[in-house]
Task: structure prediction
Amino acid sequence: MKPVKVGLLGLGTVGTGVVRIVEGHQEDLSSQVGSPISIERIAVKDREKYRNIHVDQNKLTEDPWEVIRDPEIDVIVEVMGGIEQTKSYILEALERGKHIVTANKDLMALHGAEILAKAQEKQCDVFYEASVAGGIPIIRTLIEGFSSDRIMKIMGIVNGTTNFILTKMSQEGASYEDVLAEAQQLGYAEADPTSDVEGWTPRARWLFSERLASEPM
Ligand SMILES: NC(=O)c1ccc[n+]([C@@H]2O[C@H](COP(=O)([O-])OP(=O)(O)OC[C@H]3O[C@@H](n4cnc5c(N)ncnc54)[C@H](OP(=O)(O)O)[C@@H]3O)[C@@H](O)[C@H]2O)c1
Result:
């Protein structure tokens, strides 16, 4: 059976998890998808960097365009972060008929509408569940499960990092500084955590959802 060929952009906290899941759950995933899933190329910033996961060194490239332009790749999984340059990779991948999975909250908050419009034009899928609410399956629930409802308001802690920090502070009495450092060490919070802890990520997402509500696709 022809495998679904994946090009991965990024092999950090999230990318390493993607490789582990795709490789470790291959049998389950293959039976659900109907074909094996194969990670063919991986773009990283530094090929020589030590990684706590074994990957075939020949799959690594420091040039994301090599992954985007590879005609063999069916699906791009973008877990490298960044906004403008990353947007150009995603738009070009869609132009070439590749489906996209992204965990990039900043990108989707700022350019989600343009990316989704391009995907619709090219009849490709863009899945961004991992970019919202720490991966709780909420986007699909809203789109499919509540498609005929009018949602007036959504309230909650919609940011996984903030949820982690607030839970630790309220249940264990930990200090904000200690929990933030722990979240950074675990890879939940980024080195510069401003967009998470200052509320920018949920706010940007709220602006994005407002735009989606006023311009339904
Ligand atoms: N961490 C989380 O818990 C979490 C949760 C939800 C969503 N996200 C989102 O997921 C994305 C990735 O987050 P992360 O925590 O996995 O980041 P990360 O650990 O910093 O990993 C980023 C990866 O992308 C690579 N990279 C960065 N810039 C590149 C470039 N210009 N060219 C090629 N490769 C490049 C890096 O290469 P090197 O390894 O060589 O440095 C690294 O492998 C972000 O958009 C983030 O907002 C993260």
Summary: The mean pLDDT is 89. Residues 10-15, 43-46, 49, 64, 79-82, 103-105, 130-131, 187-188, 190 surround NAP (CB under 6 Å).
